[in-house]
Every structure is written in structure tokens, then in C-alpha cells.
Design brief:
It is a single chain. By secondary structure, the chain is of the alpha/beta class. The protein has a single domain, classed as Rossmann fold (3-Layer(aba) Sandwich). A 7-stranded parallel beta sheet has the order 3-2-1-4-5-6-7, with helices on both faces. Strand 1, helix 1 and strand 2 form a beta-alpha-beta unit. Helix 1 crosses helix 7, helix 3 runs parallel beside helix 4 and helix 4 runs parallel beside helix 5. It is globular.
Length: 256
């Protein structure tokens, strides 16, 4: 790796790291030389991931936490800095996607999406920002990165995606506002917007919604989690003077 892409000496934190994009991102960051803190509720999965990263020579910190609880989100960031020494990269990946019509929808699904997709992201970002600013000021790269994982649903509204659309549009609005606040201090805020990805994300939907999703993406070769991790790697390894603020990544065959 060249000096422009090397993450040696840096520390990254990944939420939602027990599967999918988060897990793939943690592996990528470790390969790039970062010490990685992995955060999720499923501790046993995090331990398995940590074992694999460590066997490849990486340094990893397991943090079993629910970022929808503000104290736990703040604690995860605090422990990362206390135990790994700093924080240069935050990947705000934890999220849920519970689709279906707005009319007669289970309101518990709405509350869950707002809690994870919006509040969990906000809590973690708020706790991390002071440390990212510090890292940009004195770190080996003289730049820090906050990456928020959104969705194509954060760009366009679709029937049947109403509240999921709303949460991801919120992520986009927050990201752009924060970017304007901190970019002058060399903290880059980036929004990654995946299209259809072959992960567990859709698996928590009701059976009738799962059938609709299956029909919608019939004939589409979905992205893999590693494809999005590769997009994240591209964003965070640009030279200091380059900020990739928004990146939409769809499967070639996906129309919407």
C-alpha cells in the first residue's frame, strides 16, 4: 500500500459489525492496517469475527452494545479511544429495513427503524466527533473519516418503503449538515448509498413483504457486502485533499 492509502497507526470503529456490510468493512479495515473496534448486539458473532481478524495479524476490540441506547453508544466510543488510543474512522453501519405499506403498518416497525437508523447513528456520531477532530489535527494522516451507511432509499421515495425512506433521507440531511460544520477541520463526512445487497437486512421483514422484495429483485444480481466495503475503502483512503461526500452503488441490473 502507498502512503496515500495506508491506514497503519489508525483506529476505526464499525457499528452493526456482526454481519453483512459491517462485518465486511471490519475485515477490510483490518487488512488496510487499522486497529478495529467492532460493535453490535450479537457478541458471539463479534467474537468469531475478532478471532478471524486476529489470526490474520489484525488488532480488534469487541464491544457488545446496542447503539439505540445513548449510554451504550457513548460507551462504545469511549472504550475504543481508551483501549485503542484514538479514533480516526467511524463507519455508522447499524441499520434495519422493515418495509411495507404505511396504511395499517405495525408502528413497532417504524419505531425500531427510527431508533436504529436515526437515533443510533446520531448518538454514535455525536460521541465520535470530538475524537475524529482530534485525530484530524494530530493523527498520522491529518484527516479523519465519518462514513454513514444510507441507501438508495435515501435518494428516492418508493411506495411500500415509506418510513425506511424517511429514516434514510434523515441520514442524508444530517450527513450534509455535519459535513459543512467539520470539513474545514479535515473531518470528511461521507454518505454511502447501496442498492440491493445480499445480506441479512431484508430477512427480518414479514413473509408477505419478503415475497414482494423477492419479486422486485427477480433477475437482479445483488451486490455482495464486500462490494460496499470496497466502496468504503475507496472513500476513506483518498489523499487528504479529496473528500468523496456521496457514493451511490447499485447492482448493474437494478432500475430503481
Amino acid at each position: 500500500m502507498t502512503a496515500a492509502t495506508e491506514l497503519d497507526g489508525t483506529v476505526a470503529l464499525v457499528t452493526g459489525a456482526s454481519s453483512g456490510i459491517g462485518e465486511a468493512s471490519a475485515r477490510m479495515l483490518a487488512r488496510e492496517g487499522a486497529a478495529v473496534a467492532v460493535v453490535a448486539r450479537r457478541g458471539e458473532r463479534l467474537q468469531a469475527l475478532a478471532g478471524e481478524i486476529e489470526s490474520d495479524g489484525g488488532r480488534v476490540l469487541v464491544l457488545e452494545a446496542d447503539v439505540t441506547e445513548r449510554e451504550q453508544a457513548e460507551g462504545a466510543v469511549g472504550r475504543t479511544v481508551a483501549e485503542l488510543g484514538r479514533l480516526d474512522v467511524l463507519i455508522n453501519n447499524a441499520g434495519v429495513m422493515l418495509l411495507g405499506p404505511i396504511v395499517d403498518a405495525p408502528i413497532e416497525e417504524w419505531e425500531r427503524m427510527v431508533d436504529v437508523n436515526v437515533l443510533g447513528l446520531l448518538y454514535t456520531a455525536r460521541a465520535a466527533i470530538p475524537h475524529l477532530l482530534d485525530a484530524a489535527a494530530v493523527g498520522p494522516r491529518e484527516v479523519a473519516d465519518l462514513v454513514n451507511i444510507s441507501s438508495v432509499a435515501g435518494r428516492r421515495a418508493t411506495a411500500g418503503n415509506g418510513v425506511y425512506n424517511a429514516t434514510k433521507h434523515a441520514v442524508g440531511g444530517f450527513s450534509e449538515s455535519l459535513r459543512q460544520e467539520v470539513t474545514g477541520r479535515h473531518v470528511r463526512v461521507s454518505l454511502i448509498e447501496p442498492g440491493a445487497v445480499a445480506t441479512e437486512l431484508s430477512g427480518h421483514n414479514r413473509p408477505e413483504v419478503l415475497e414482494q422484495i423477492k419479486e422486485r429483485f427477480a433477475g437482479v444480481t445483488r451486490l455482495e457486502a464486500t462490494d460496499i466495503a470496497d466502496a468504503i475503502r475507496y472513500v476513506i483512503t483518498r489523499p487528504r485533499h479529496i473528500a468523496i461526500n456521496e457514493l451511490l452503488v447499485r447492482p448493474t441490473e437494478q432500475l430503481q
